[in-house]
Amino acid sequence: MLPYPQIDPVAIALGPLKIHWYGLMYLIGIGGAWWLAARRLHAFEPSWNREKLSDLVFWVAMGVILGGRLGYVLFYDLEAYLAQPSLILQVWKGGMSFHGGFIGVLLATWWFGSRNDKGFFQLMDFIAPLVPIGLGAGRIGNFINAELWGKATDLPWAMVFPTDPQQLARHPSQLYQFALEGVALFAILWFYSRKPRPTMAVSGMFAACYGVFRFIVEFVRVPDAQLGYLAWGWLTMGQLLSLPMILGGLGLIAYAYKRQSAQEASR
After folding, report:
1. Which residues contact 138 (CB under 8 A, 6 or more apart)?
2. What pLDDT is attached to residue 17?
3. Residue 166 φ then ψ, to 5°
4. Are residues 40 and 126 in contact, defined by beta-carbon separation less than 8 angstroms?
5. Rounded to whole angstroms, how far apart are CA atoms 119 and 113?
6. Digit-coded pLDDT (tens) for 218-235
7. Contact call for residues 37 and 123 (beta carbons, < 8 A)
8. Sign (positive/negative) of CA torsion 119, 125, 130, 131?
9. What are the two backbone dihedrals, phi and then psi, of residue 17, each rounded to the nearest 5 degrees?
10. Mind giving me the DSSP string for 17-83?
């Protein structure tokens, strides 16, 4: 068993002002994505300047934060937030939904593209390889908060989390998700997008791979206590929300290559 590193969730305390690691991870994720996007900007759209890129990053970040928070409220614990609406603003305590943030990014991208003469999937293909940076940083934030831990196990890398009332050795599922949704997904999308791909293919690869990775980790992650398992004693909300991503992603990839072949045949 590995010891859980005792990390204070508060990174900086200046009197009543407290800056939490969870919030800093979001800033790191957004900043890292902005930096990488700036390096790829000329290849994507030579006429855009850094100001235009900053506008895109800002609206996508708003989609992540607002969508992620509202998604958690709607998908995972609506009753509690209706009973105490002020909890919605307490984001430093955790409670962000990737799937809600994903919907927020889709809406923000559509809005931005419609006002800047860019197709929705053109932008999504550009954004998709950047997203794992934020995902990986967010999972480190979950780990520091000692939240979203896994099921009990006797594996040698199991940990006892201070927030676990049972104090059992558990899967560090946040680190699994960091490795898969952050590191592995970034590597896949980075190498896949280095060569020209048909429009929609990179977006489809992101959706399919994320969905598969999330679906797998959910088997060793403890479901939210207020929801539990939704069906068959194993299906979680995370898996239910990931299934459309897997199917939709595979469908986008197939359609992208089929359309490309049809266009090449008609020339």
Report:
1. 25, 26, 29, 96, 98
2. 85
3. -85, -15
4. yes
5. 6
6. 999 998 777 788 888 889
7. no
8. positive
9. -85, 125
10. EEEEHHHHHHHHHHHHHHHHHHHHHHHH-TT--HHHHHHHHHHHHHHHHHHHHHHHHHHH-HHHHHH
**Angstrom distance (rounded) from CA 118 to CA 71:** 27
Report which secondary-structure segment, H or E, holds 170: strand 169-170
Confidence of residue 91 (pLDDT cuts 50, 70, 90): low
Residue 111 pLDDT level (bands cut at 50, 70, 90): very high
Asked if residue 40 belongs to a known ligand binding site, the reply is no
State the alpha helices, DSSP H only, in 77-119: 78-83, 98-114
pLDDT in tens, 37-76: 999 998 898 989 889 999 999 999 999 989 988 888 888 8
Give the type of residue at 132: P
95-114: buried (b, 16+ CB within 10 Å) or exposed (e) per residue?
Answer: bbbbbbbbbbbeebbeebbe
- Cβ atoms of residues 229 and 235 within 8 Å: yes
d(CA 91, CA 251): 34
Residue 256 in tokens: 């992208």
CA 221 to CA 174: how far, in whole Å?
Answer: 9
pLDDT tens digits for range 135-147: 999 999 999 999 9
Note whether 30 and 57 are within 8 A (CB): yes
Beta bridge partners of residue 13, listed in sequence order? 18
